[in-house]
From TrEMBL, chain A:
Role, per record: Catalyzes the transfer of a geranylgeranyl moiety from geranylgeranyl diphosphate to both cysteines of proteins with the C-terminal sequence -XXCC, -XCXC and -CCXX.
Record protein name field: Geranylgeranyl transferase type-2 subunit beta
Cofactor(s) of this protein: Zn(2+)
Domain of life: Eukaryota
Domain Prenyltransferase alpha-alpha toroid: 13-316
GO molecular function: transferase activity
Record lineage: Eukaryota, Fungi, Dikarya, Ascomycota, Pezizomycotina
Catalytic activity: geranylgeranyl diphosphate + L-cysteinyl-[protein] = S-geranylgeranyl-L-cysteinyl-[protein] + diphosphate
Family stated for the protein in its record: Belongs to the protein prenyltransferase subunit beta family.
Cofactor note: Binds 1 zinc ion per subunit.
TrEMBL record, chain B:
Superkingdom per UniProt: Eukaryota
Entry's family note: Belongs to the protein prenyltransferase subunit alpha family.
E.C. no: 2.5.1.58, 2.5.1.59
Official protein name in the record: Protein farnesyltransferase/geranylgeranyltransferase type-1 subunit alpha
Protein's UniProt keywords contain Magnesium: yes
Length: 329, 532
């Protein structure tokens, strides 16, 4: 990879602006969008914090206030809601565990929260023991995102034994499609986001043997469009977030070289707001924290200089997953 | 040049003179009026004393008069002799002191306080001030009526009897409506007078029994939540009714209101569904409302999860009647198609359509027309990959012939040959319309796998899109997907040289962005050949 100073101006990452943008998110409480996204608050903290770690500015959000906020979202049953007063749900529980992993604060969960065991039980109770699938909450909506989330959080806490891994793996296999991809449920259209969740779940439990890597890799590499960007499904528009879903999937089957890296670099970097910071879905659009994170993770997977390495399975810095899980290669 | 308008000029002058006269002769503001009243009730000595700066400035006569006047304010008068009293009253008559009751304090300019805009009320003009007093009086009156409403409601709830009429207290719908109107008036007055905002729930008598629970958060917490007022009020009432496990029509309305402001709030949806269950709301009523919300918020997925819960909940009540199931399937599809008119690739809506197909058993085209409907969508946009994907699901998951649990990626001997033939022909016909379209090419491969057929079985069809490969000027490729499939057909048949040429040309010219992939294909075939 080229050195940072050797890159032409249009391929420079506006690191300082991005850090400032993420820090500013919490002070925008008077903006309309802020309360409309309350149901994403805990996710938002995870997205912003992970982005800051990749930018090598982990201290840019205060650690103590982060822990306080995360724990204030926890319910008696061990699960976490999006914000205080919101119902507990798989997606927020996973974000909470990821945040605590990121800032090395599992001990605070034991001391001041309900403890790992309660979180593990909340997640394990959401597994359908007959089909192996996971629901998001007590209301039973099931999809592969929740299954991945469960494996992600449980493995970080060392509690995977609480669930039936074999049945869950069978379910993922049933979600594979004729075109080589995976869908939300058996029979649902292949979608890059769902492919990521299925592959990462299989990867966490070391069950990649059922993956038809060449066929899937072919489908994934077909997601690149002439402008360098990636789309999520055939005949759809490109979007920066697929830099993560597609690329991390290719990374898990060791095939990132099947796409044109430089073309994707250019596409992601053209989506930056170089003045106010942040990355958008496509060049010229409004930035948001979600696309900012997935633009940065994409760049990190491609080996952009100056960024921390991202773990394609956990969507956490490699330094974090290595600290907790040891080296997995 | 400005027009001359003598008449207007003169009139303006008149007005300003009148105003000036007015200014001088009569008090304009509340403070001035109070000051004038105070002046009127003050004895001249007092006034003069104040103006001169103290008693020492009075003349001897004035001092005597002052002392005598002063004494009239005390009990000492009775101590005076008759003669002295007579003298006193003579003095009183001479000074012609104005009569007054009690002591009026000298008005201070800020004693009326400030209004909601921070304006000093003492600076109000008299008519403005009177208007304000009038409004305050109105508010007091409304409050009194509100109190009597509250008493009546209390008596009615306890079944008490009105002693004046001998009848039981009954709270009528008119009473409630009147109170509702009254609160609106009160809210308007309060806002006008004091800038106080009363939300739509605190002004609705139907919600009086609920003590709202505002959001509690530690000071300065990371990611603290700030709400606009309306939303904050609704949420505080939601917390209260949820904490009380209340399920009622008003809760249903409350969730409707919150969803209209923020449909992504998943907790509200869960609570709404619980209300639907408890109140046994008819399915079609809820569906009708939901349709409007779905069209307003196209990207929202909670709406579709809610719809799925509704169908799960109600299906047992119609499952016994095939006609009812068919009718429901038809009306649901009609709405799904309305959604697709907005976005034909909406993933949530497609997921719901699959759920519906399975749940209502919409497999047979003769009965449900699902295949016809999908064909219509593909005809409209042959590049709609979601529609292709649904077609695959519909054809190859049909329980009439498909092997249960057969994965989409494996051959299924249960699928009849004529179905495979039909689908191969269908995909080929659509490829002819747009040869560079990925979807039917993927579909064709998928169908061949399901039918257990070789790729080579469609060689003739594929070859028509590739001519004179490798012959510089004469080379014609009408579809990179065809070229790719041709390579696989050659590889399958063991014709490695031809396969390699296809991949080489793909990387060099026909699909350059995936150069890395094509080179890998070439290398891996060579490695496999070398090791075997």
């Amino acid at each position: 990879m080229a050195q940072l100073q050797d890159l032409p101006d249009e391929l420079q990452l506006a690191t300082a602006a991005h850090v400032q943008y993420i820090q500013s998110l919490d002070s925008r409480k008077d903006e309309y969008e802020y309360w409309l996204t309350e149901h994403l608050r805990l996710n938002g903290v995870y997205w912003g914090l992970t982005a800051l770690h990749l930018l090598k500015k982990p201290e840019a959000l205060p650690r103590d206030a982060t822990i306080d906020f995360v724990l204030s979202c926890q319910h008696e049953n061990g699960g976490f809601g999006a914000a205080p007063g919101h119902d507990a749900h798989m997606l927020y529980t996973v974000s909470a565990v990821q945040i605590l992993a990121l800032i090395d604060a599992f001990d605070e969960l034991e001391k001041r929260g309900k403890g790992k065991a309660a979180v593990g039980k909340f997640i394990a109770d959401l597994q359908n023991r007959e089909t192996g699938t996971f629901a998001g909450d007590e209301w039973g909506e099931e999809d592969t995102r929740f299954l991945y989330g469960a494996f992600n959080a449980l493995s970080l806490m060392g509690l995977l034994h609480l669930v039936d891994v074999d049945k869950a793996v069978d379910h993922i296999k049933a979600c594979s499609n004729f075109d080589g991809g995976y869908g939300l449920t058996p029979g649902a259209e292949s979608h890059s986001g769902q492919i990521f969740t299925c592959l990462a779940a299989l990867s966490i439990v070391g069950r990649m043997e059922s993956v038809e890597a060449d066929k899937l890799g072919k489908w994934l590499s077909e997601r690149q469009l002439p402008n360098g960007g990636l789309n999520g499904r055939p005949e759809k528009q490109e979007d920066v977030c697929y830099s993560w879903w597609v690329l991390s999937s290719l990374a898990m089957i060791d095939r990132t070289h099947w796409i044109d890296r430089n073309a994707l670099f250019g596409f992601i970097l053209r989506c930056q707001d170089t003045e106010k910071g942040g990355i958008s879905d496509r060049p010229g659009n409004m930035v948001d924290v979600w696309h900012t994170l997935f633009g940065l993770t994409g760049l990190s997977l491609l080996g952009y200089p100056g960024l921390d390495d991202i773990d394609p399975v956990y969507c956490l810095p490699k330094s974090t997953t290595e600290r907790i899980l040891g080296s997995r290669n | 040049m400005p027009p001359k308008n003598n008449k207007g000029g003169a009139k303006a002058k008149e007005l300003s003179e009148a105003k000036q006269e007015n200014d001088n002769s009569r008090p304009q503001t509340v403070f001035e009026r109070a000051q004038a009243a105070y002046d009127l009730t003050r004895p001249p000595y007092d006034k003069e004393r104040e103006e001169l700066g103290g008693l020492h400035a009075l003349s001897t006569v004035e001092k005597t008069a002052y002392a005598n006047w002063f004494c009239t304010g005390s009990d000492e008068l009775s101590c005076l002799s008759k003669k002295a009293q007579k003298e006193l009253w003579k003095q009183v008559n001479e000074t012609n002191r104005p009569l007054r009751r009690g002591q009026i304090d000298q008005p201070k300019p800020d004693q009326w306080g400030k209004d909601k805009l921070g304006r000093n009320i003492g600076d109000y003009t008299v008519p403005q001030y009177e208007q304000r007093i009038e409004k305050q009086a109105q508010l007091t009156g409304l409050k009194a009526l509100g109190r009597s409403f509250a008493s009546k409601r209390l008596y009615a709830s306890k079944g008490l009897v009105d002693s004046s009429t001998g009848e039981r207290y009954i709270l009528t719908e008119e009473d409630i409506q009147a109170e509702r109107e009254r609160r609106k008036e009160m809210a308007a007055l309060k806002k006008d007078l004091y800038g106080e905002k009363m939300g739509s729930y605190s002004t609705d008598p139907e919600w009086d029994d609920i003590v709202p629970i505002p959001q509690m958060e530690p000071e300065g917490a990371l990611a603290a939540i700030a709400y606009p007022e309306d939303y904050a009020e609704s949420m505080s009432y939601l917390r209260a009714v949820m904490a009380a496990n209340e399920y009622s029509p008003r809760c249903l309305k409350l969730t409707e209101h919150i969803i209209s402001m923020n449909p992504a709030h998943y907790t509200v949806w869960l609570y709404r569904f619980a209300n639907i269950q408890h109140l046994d709301i008819p399915l079609l009523d809820e569906i009708e409302w939901l349709n409007g919300v779905a069209l307003d918020f196209l990207k929202n997925y909670q709406i579709w999860h809610h719809r799925q819960l509704l169908v799960e909940h109600y299906y047992p009540t119609i499952s016994g009647s095939p006609d009812e199931v068919k009718r429901f399937a038809k009306s649901e599809r009609a709405f799904v198609m309305e959604m697709f008119a907005e976005d034909a690739k909406n993933y949530h809506v497609w997921s719901y359509r699959q759920f519906l197909t399975r749940k209502l058993g919409m497999w047979e085209n003769e009965e449900h027309g699902e295949l016809d409907s999908i064909e219509g969508m593909i005809d409209e946009d042959v590049r709609n990959n979601s529609a292709w994907s649904h077609r695959f699901f519909l054809v190859f998951s049909n329980p009439r012939y498909a092997t249960p649990e057969s994965h989409a990626t494996e051959p299924d001997a249960g699928v009849p040959a004529d179905v495979v033939d039909r689908e191969v022909a269908y995909a080929q016909a659509k490829i002819q319309l747009a040869p560079q379209n990925q979807s039917p090419w993927n579909y064709l491969r998928g169908v061949l796998v399901k039918g257990g057929r070789e790729l080579g079985s469609v060689k003739g069809f594929v070859e028509q899109y590739v001519q004179n490969l490798g012959e510089a000027e004469k080379e014609e490729v009408h579809s990179s997907h065809a070229l790719e499939q041709l390579a696989d057909i050659y590889e399958e048949a063991g014709d490695k040289e031809k396969a390699d040429l296809c991949w080489k040309r793909l990387g060099e010219k026909w699909d350059r962005i995936r150069f890395g992939y094509w080179e890998w294909k070439r290398r891996s075939m060579k490695t496999a050949a070398a090791s075997s």
